[in-house]
Amino acid sequence: MVFAHYMIQFAPPGLNGNPNPDYSTDINMAKAAGFDAFAVDYTDNAALFATNLDILYHTASTLGFKLFLTIDTTTMYDVAQVVNITSFYANSPAQLKDGAGNIFLSSFEVNPPGWNWQTDVIDQLNIQNIGVNFLPGSLGQDGAYEASLPDRGTGLFTWIHPALSASEEAAVDQTFADARDSSGKPWMAGVAPWFFKRLASDTNWLNAQDSNIYIDRWVELLKLKPDYIEVISWNDFGESHYIGPADSTPEAELMLPSKADYYGNLDHSAFLKMSTFFINTYKAGETNVTVTADEEDVFFFYRPQPVNNIPTNDTYLDNAWPLPENASSIADNVYVVPFLSEPATIYLSSGGYSTSMDAPSFLSKSAITFNSPAMMGQQILTASRPINGQTLNKTGTVDITSGGSRYQGNVVAI
Predict the structure, then answer these.
(1) How many Cβ atoms are within 10 Å of 173's Cβ, its own excluded?
(2) For labelling alongside 380, which of 41, 56, 116, 262 has CA 20 to 30 A away?
(3) Do strands 156-158 and 187-191 pair parallel, antiparallel, or not at all (unpaired)?
(4) C-alpha closest to that of 369 among 357, 386, 383, 384
(5) Would you list the DSSP string of 375-392?
(6) What residues are paired with 400 via a beta bridge?
């Protein structure tokens, strides 16, 4: 099964003055893309969850979609609340369960919480006749070590490691695959479309894997065949990792972070569409993506600024923040990702500078640099032949520029 981490803290699409959030758009989009459930991020915000979580579970039940809770231990400190909320939704029609009837439960952890998962949570739920398939999140890099730890639930869940290179992340994945094979414990792998966060001078980072973070990692995970895969995330605008819609709700009605900081006009819809190819391949038990003529598409994604550019009129409070951590690992490229049934030549016009790429059948990825002012500006994608029966002509929704009022490390992906 394939899940998407879901931040209920952020407003869903189309709020537009309605005090009651409508989650049907997100759920229907996720179902259409092949996702089996949302892993709902649960933090210490009782007022929010008293209303929104109930609406989400009700909507999911109505639409035949599944949910499970991910306990965020960086902000949740009340173990009784964890037990109570998990128990409350355990018998909801929307609650995801395994074949034995055990509910799914996971966590996000930077450090171990102030409780014992087995005795303080799982045993307390078992007393209520609630079986638990618990997959605790880990930032650890050694699968064998993580599998050997007590109090670690049913299986293993690898999160994302922002400072690791793609090859280092692949090596970590291999240790968890090996631990799964030797221990018999199921393994859930997390994969993210992008990462960028800049909330303070000391909370200021990019992911060192750059363009390899999503496409290349999916390709690698298809070979390792985790028991479950979780996309991180559907809508975490605060860290720029989202595949769901960048909301059209007016700025004044949104919870933080603001669109201006992170996701205004920065569409990630290509990552959602790519996900369908990967999900279908994964569920079919295949290791290589194949594409039929009526599935063809070509995507591209890029940051709207050079990585070393801090706008002179940056309006952050101290106006003196350094470049994000891991910026030295990020290249100034436009990435083109064709999914083709037959080869084609793809053309990118980058600020008037034209590049051609001979793309083979099925999945490929090319990088075109924009390391000079002449190669910035509008981005236009075309092809030598019809793609899925249509003329390909995609124009980036945001130009590449060295201006702007904020440093922007997020991408537009269309």
Answers:
(1) 22
(2) 262
(3) parallel
(4) 357
(5) G-B-EEEEESS-BTTB--
(6) 377
Query: Exposed, middle or buried: residue 356 (CB in 10 Å: 0-12, 13-18, 19+)?
Result: middle
Through-space distance between the first and last CA atoms of the chain, rounded to whole angstroms: 26
Distances (CA, A) of 108 to 56, 75, 205, 345: 20, 10, 19, 43
> pLDDT, tens digit, for every residue of 231-260?
999 998 888 899 998 765 555 544 444 555
| pLDDT tens readout for residues 324-370 | 899 999 999 999 999 999 999 999 999 989 999 999 999 999 999 99
CA distance 115 to 326: 33
Residues in contact with 354: Cβ distance below 8 Å, sequence separation at least 6, in sequence order: 347, 348
Q: What are the residues whose beta carbons fall under 8 Å from the beta carbon of 202, sequence distance 6 or more?
A: none
- Count of residues in the chain: 414
Residue 307, φ and ψ in degrees, nearest 5 = -65, -30
Dihedral angle of Cα 167, 173, 174, 176, to the nearest 10 degrees: 160
* CA distance to 37, 207, 244, 411, per residue, from 240 (Å): 21, 11, 11, 8
Which residues lie closer than 8 Å to 62 by C-beta, 6 or more apart? none
CA–CA gap between residue 374 and residue 400 (Å, rounded): 11
Token pair of 35, please? Answer: 């996702």
SS3 41: strand
Q: How far apart are CA 384 and CA 356, in angstroms?
A: 10
Residue 13 DSSP label: T
Whether the full predicted model's pTM is greater than 0.90, yes or no, is: yes
Which stretches does DSSP call E strand in 65-145? 66-72, 103-108, 132-138
Half-sphere exposure of 307 (CA within 13 A, CB side): 21
Three-state DSSP class for residue 129? coil
Instruction: Please write the tens of the pLDDT for every residue from 217-230.
Output: 999 999 999 999 99
What is the 8-class DSSP label of residue 236? E
Pairing of strands 156-158, 228-231: unpaired
